[in-house]
Design goal:
heterodimer, A: 634 residues, alpha+beta, Heat Shock Protein 90, Ribosomal Protein S5, domain 2, 5-stranded mixed beta sheet, B: 371 residues, 12-stranded antiparallel beta sheet, 9-stranded antiparallel beta sheet, 7 helices, 18% helix, elongated
Chain lengths: 634, 371
């Protein structure tokens, strides 16, 4: 090819490409950073936090369309810095590429102010403590309109007016006033949860929505969600050299149908991370009814170098260096807390009082939706770990050791003599139980406070009240765990098939089978690969119902596919569930006293005695206080 | 519609066909029995849409007519009556049925006869005559191994293969298989393979009468006639799995053992097998069969020694004890013969001595033992 033609070609092509004008570039970038009023609030508030503010005021008018104002008492800026701040990629937060690897501030990209300045009228007033005068800067659509001095308190004041005035498309795509305000409220709430040491004031159209003093995280949650709701939360605390988890999770019966009340912070930055979310969810195991989501507010602190927040300009996504380690840690921490808590739903007959939530929409769903027949208020009696209640007794089941036995029996409230009451000194109960234990439980039966009603429920006296157990689901839970442990302890048995089942699969399923062949064998599937996306099932787990071979294999594969975290799925779990359900005593089966005692003993030896494998509650507790109230004793 | 009948005769006829009536049905009309009176002949019919049965009895007819009568209440009433004469009177316009005895009067509400599904008209191509004994014996030998898996409809029925000089029946549920061949039942013009639903076959076994019964086949249905009772069933129009291919021919390890001894041993040992897998282990040494089981859940274990005739090399094979019990209890010979090849291949079980004209073969898939 002659050089001249080539050059011509290059010139022709090159002439089509231009460097964009800075205003245009900013407008385009603003599309990413500033998607809606809530993003402006987020960016501004993050700046305030990064500036070390101890008090932040947010004032919103018309859901942020006409005004977003953030005032802080942070370190402020010099006049030069204030001007520079509106330049793209201008930031005080990082200086070298190494800083990017270890971000400790919320912001770092240096885009926010430039982007906001490109699509709104921005007024910035700022004063450093060492300066005598503050600076006023007005920017409209990236153009500097005013620059002068002003007298003011140290800190920064930013007012963003007429957002998206020059990007009608974006303005038109704003949602309703309520939706946008809700988004802003969400942002402020998250920040308030993450930074309890900061005082927050949040107003919308002259109405004060939040006014929070600097407090501990616990008090902050109480302030935000109401004190009564808070009693349903469990403290999560766990740390190793890699990361530190700190926060609260809700008790299972406070789960709601949406994911609204889920706050995950990585180094105090609110993020959305499916893996961690899944870890928390998984920790609840069967405690949750399908479609319900638990409350949680967790902060994970880890070395900023181990996590990348620079995935998206909005910084809501993070990438962990070792996601599975974080996943496991969260799962274990939350599971431990849940297992240790008394999750027996309590029954109360009083009408619910209105909760003290300061922001109405933040209120929990406080009824157990799937069980409408039991009217109950969430926390009628404080579940206090100092009380002698079940949480104390059976909380740390996994640590259950023989030495505790005597003490436990002493405290165990169900097998006590029918004649004993609260007034009897503990020693006597202890003595008594020890005695009945030595006599080999000969005097079981009628001496113990335990009854079966309608051949369906078991009633038993516990220290804090009355315990009602559903015999079928209780047995189901026992069998389920038994079968699971049996699966773990022994190799599976495989029933060989007379007619090997030939299954044609999609290419992806086929490769999955290939990958999982060994795991499938562990469950009991004898599967051969035949090539051309065809597998041959030659043997099946011995306890799978005849005829469902292909379907069960498909189910197992689907579960694998639907779940990114392989460790959590288990076909044996499904098998165990269905076996447990089939083999358990049914409602209507008469049980003798000794059978009931054994059942209760075994039940509390399980890892999660409060719910059956399908998520139904196993027991309901009626506190004595509730009975007292019903009988007008209080 | 009006007739007079003795309660015992009516009961006998009802009992024959009532097995068809579904206990729970989405079509309530099926819970009825159709009464159809023509002169002195009363025809009773019941159907579940797949299998239909009808029986005729002679009555003293007064007024022809047809009506559907609720089966459960009718049966209970008739059963509770002493053996007496009974006037059956139905007001067809109001579907009101009145049964009058000497001392009592019972009124039932029926359904209009045209609500009742029509029993398929049957055009027999060929008829085959079979003795009641043979039918009963054949069905009772094998019905236990029919699959209940709706996903593979062919296996929910019994395969009947009619050949010139031979009748062959096969059932399997994918884990075990039973095949019986009958010869010496005369020459048959019919050459046909049909799959009959298990429900129909168990009804046949219940209703087959002493002496001659006939079986007739058309394209979609099979019909059995026993005296004045007929049973018509849809055939399962599916391809039966190629069972011949899975019956091994080269199983050369032969074990002969007393059926009673082995059955009793397996029954006892099975009590100690895992309640989920029912697995038992058979350990074979020269002239010694050891049956053992262990229960991981409760820590129990059991073993039994059974004398046997075995001279091939030592081996170990696992079985589902329920399958083994099923098989052993359906073979009626003093000694049974096992023919084995390996721990993961099908085992063949046959009576050591076959009945005349009968060739019975059972096959059971082992359970892979976890060593």
């Amino acid at each position: 090819m002659p050089t001249s033609i080539y050059r011509e070609l290059v010139v022709k092509v090159a002439s089509k490409i231009r460097i964009l004008q800075p205003e245009l570039a900013n407008k385009i970038a603003a599309g990413e950073v500033v998607q809606r009023p809530a993003s402006v609030v987020k960016e501004l508030v993050e700046n305030s936090i990064d500036a070390g503010a101890t008090s932040i005021t947010i004032i919103i008018k018309d859901a942020g369309r006409s005004l977003i104002q953030v005032v802080d008492d942070g370190e402020g800026m010099s006049e030069e810095d204030a001007l520079l701040a509106f330049e793209r990629h201008a930031t005080s937060k990082i200086a070298t590429p190494e800083d990017l690897e270890a971000i400790r501030t919320l912001g770092f990209r240096g885009e926010a102010l430039a982007s906001i300045g490109a699509v709104a009228h921005v007024e910035l007033r700022t004063r450093r403590r060492i300066d005598e005068m503050g600076t006023v800067i007005r920017i409209e659509g990236s153009e500097l309109k005013e620059r002068s001095g002003v007298g003011m308190e140290p800190g920064t004041f930013i007012a963003v007016r007429h957002l998206f005035y020059n990007t009608p498309a974006r303005r038109n795509f704003l949602k309703t006033r309520n939706t946008e305000l809700k988004n802003i409220t969400d942002v402020v709430t998250r920040m308030a949860v993450a930074f309890p040491q900061i005082a927050w004031r949040y107003e919308s159209d002259e109405e004060v929505l939040l006014d929070l003093r600097p407090v501990s995280r616990e008090d902050r949650l109480k302030d935000l969600f109401g004190e009564r709701q808070f009693e349903a939360l469990l403290r999560v605390e766990s740390a190793n050299e890699y990361l530190k988890i700190d926060g609260y999770v809700g008790k299972p019966h406070f789960a709601r149908k949406s994911r609204v009340d889920q706050f995950l912070f990585i180094n105090n930055r609110f993020v959305i991370n499916r893996a961690i979310n899944h870890a928390v969810f998984q920790a609840y195991e069967h405690l949750l009814i399908r479609g319900m989501f638990p409350f949680y507010a967790l902060n994970i602190e880890l070395d900023p170098r181990k996590v990348d927040v620079n995935v998206h300009p909005s910084k809501m996504e993070v990438k962990f260096e070792n996601e599975s380690a974080v996943y496991r840690m969260v799962l274990t921490a939350v599971r431990k807390v849940l297992g240790a808590s008394d999750s027996a739903p309590e029954m109360a007959f009083v009408e619910q009082e209105t909760s003290g939530a300061s922001v109405d929409r933040l209120r929990f769903a406080n009824t157990w939706q799937s069980r409408p027949e039991i009217p109950r208020s969430p926390v009628s009696v404080p579940v206090d770990s100092t009380q002698f209640d079940l949480s104390r007794l059976f909380g740390r089941v996994e640590q259950r050791i023989e030495e505790e036995r005597v003490e436990r029996d002493g405290e165990a409230t169900y097998p006590i003599d029918a004649g004993t009451d609260k007034g009897v000194p503990r020693e006597r109960i202890l003595q008594h139980t020890a005695q009945s234990a030595t006599t080999g439980g000969t005097e079981s039966g009628e001496a113990r406070a335990i009854w079966q009603i309608h051949n369906k429920y078991i009633l038993s006296q516990v220290k804090s009240g009355l315990l009602i157990i559903d015999q079928h689901v209780a047995h189901e839970r026992i069998l389920y765990e038994k079968v699971l442990s049996q699966f773990q302890n022994s190799l599976p048995t495989t029933q060989q098939l007379l007619f090997p089942h030939i299954v044609q699969m999609s290419a992806s399923d086929y490769s999955l089978v290939k990958e999982l062949q060994d795991d499938l064998a562990k469950i009991g599937f004898n599967v051969q690969l035949f090539g051309k996306n065809t597998v041959v099932i030659e043997g099946i787990p011995a306890d799978v119902r005849v005829g469902n071979e292909a379907r069960i294999l498909q189910d197992v594969l689907d579960e694998f596919k639907n779940d990114e975290h392989h460790q959590t799925i288990d076909a044996r779990d499904k098998l165990a569930k269905s076996f447990a359900c089939k083999a358990a005593v049914k409602a209507g089966d008469k049980l003798t006293s000794s059978e009931m005692l054994v059942l209760i003993d075994q039940l509390f030896a399980t890892q999660m005695p409060y719910v059956c494998p399908h998520g139904r509650p196993v027991m309901v507790k009626i506190p004595v206080e509730e009975l007292d109230r019903r009988f007008g004793r209080s | 519609m009006k007739f007079i009948v003795t309660s015992s005769e009516l009961q006998k006829a009802l009992t024959k066909i009532s097995g068809v009536v579904p206990s729970k049905s989405t079509l309530p009309i099926l819970e009825n029995i159709l009464f159809d009176l023509t002169k002195n002949t009363l025809k009773l019919s019941a159907t579940d849409l797949e299998v239909s049965m009808s029986a005729t009895i002679e009555v003293k007819g007064a007024e022809d007519g047809k009506i559907a009568v609720p089966a459960k209440r009718l049966m209970e009433t008739i059963r509770a009556l002493p053996d007496i004469q009974l006037v059956f009177h139905a007001d067809l316009s109001a579907n009101r049925i009145k049964m009058i005895t000497e001392t009592g009067e019972y009124v039932l509400m029926g359904e209009a006869s045209d609500e009742f599904p029509t029993i398929p008209q049957f055009k027999a191509e060929e008829k085959l005559s079979l003795s009641g004994d043979l039918l009963r014996r054949m069905i009772n030998r094998m019905i236990f191994a029919v699959s209940t898996d709706e996903l593979r409809p062919a296996m929910t029925g019994m395969l009947l293969q009619v050949r010139e000089t031979e009748l062959r029946a096969v059932v399997t549920d994918g884990h075990r298989l039973v095949r019986i061949n009958y010869t010496g039942i005369g020459k048959m013009k019919l050459k046909k393979d049909i799959i009959v639903p298990a429900k129909a076959m168990s009804l046949v076994s219940r209703s087959a009468e002493e002496g001659e019964n006939t079986m007739a086949v058309d394209t979609t249905h099979v019909q059995f006639t026993f005296g004045n009772t007929t049973l018509t069933s849809r055939v399962i129009e599916e391809a039966y799995p190629n069972y011949e291919a899975v019956i091994p021919l080269d199983n050369d390890k032969k074990l002969t053992v007393s059926r009673d001894l082995l059955l009793a041993a397996v029954r006892r040992v099975a009590l100690y097998s895992s309640s989920t897998t029912h697995q038992i282990r058979c350990t074979l040494k020269k002239n010694e069969l050891r049956v053992s089981a262990e229960d991981m859940d409760f820590g129990g274990e059991a073993k039994e020694k059974v004398v046997c005739d075995y001279s091939a090399e030592d081996m170990e094979i696992g079985f589902n004890s329920t399958y083994l019990i099923d098989i052993l209890s359906h073979i009626d010979s003093d000694e049974v013969e096992f023919r084995l090849s390996s721990a993961v291949r099908a085992a063949i079980v046959t009576p050591a001595k076959q009945k005349p004209n009968e060739d019975l073969l059972m096959l059971v898939m082992p359970m892979r033992l976890n060593v």
